[in-house]
Design brief:
alpha/beta; eight-stranded parallel sheet; 10 helices; Arginase, Chain A
Length: 306
Amino acid sequence: MNILDLDHSLTAQAPISRLLESGRAKRLDLLDLGPKLRLWSSERTWRRFAERLQQRPRHSGPQPEIFFVGSGDYHHLTPAFLTDLPEPASLIHFDNHPDWVRFAPRRHCGSWVNQALKLPNIQRIVTLGPCSDDLQNPQLKGGNVRALKRGVLQLFPWQRPPSKVWGRVGDGAGHRQQENLLHWRNLAELDWPVFLEQMIASLPTRAVWITLDKDVLACEDAATNWDQGGMRLSHLLQAIRALAASKRILGIDICGEYARPAFSNALKRWEAKSDQPPAERWSEADLLRNATTNQALIDLFEELFP
């Protein structure tokens, strides 16, 4: 496992410290790049990150490469993990936000899905779990509904009312259109094991990559820099187990820790203050949920990929 130390959020957790001390994980020191990468990044800083990532110790064998990344403010680093996949793959994306905004900077935590869609070995992206207001009038907010129309992106909210759209989007695996509304196939209303079986069977590739932002989880299971979704940890663990049983998992990246704000410029500080809930909503006890959830993930990974 790889611990990308961008913001101190991971190394302070007991499960991560134990991984590092035992040699079961390697730490990549990226603290110097953390503030410049957080929320969004220039191409120059992005290239520096990609170069440093290539210098990490590589593991051999069939087991997936696993990355713990830190705050969800770094979710736009995911495409760097996907650039040299050995075969075509489907990207399974757990998140409380669709991260599909077309008007944001290219390397932005709210727009990275569009970059992943351009990668030659990514055949489909399936986003699971959004509850956020990004799906309210998504076109006005820059949402890439064209990808839904093309079928290269499938989106299954955890719980959202219909979304107003303009023009013909058409029906998809996670929605159906009636006049100017997209009615979502809400996961909270479905039989979860049956849904997983159907979703996995429909994937166009034998290989998958899993990317997880823990803000997809309910507040009982995580405390992040962003607003929380409604999925429970038990649902997430069941999904990973089902994917591992039926598909070859090439890799997994996990973000969504809570990290105190530390940004490289005033614009980022303003954006975080405008978009993110106040940090005061979490107590120190609340933040311990992240370590508990990470321990559960580590236990599952070590069971599935010994």
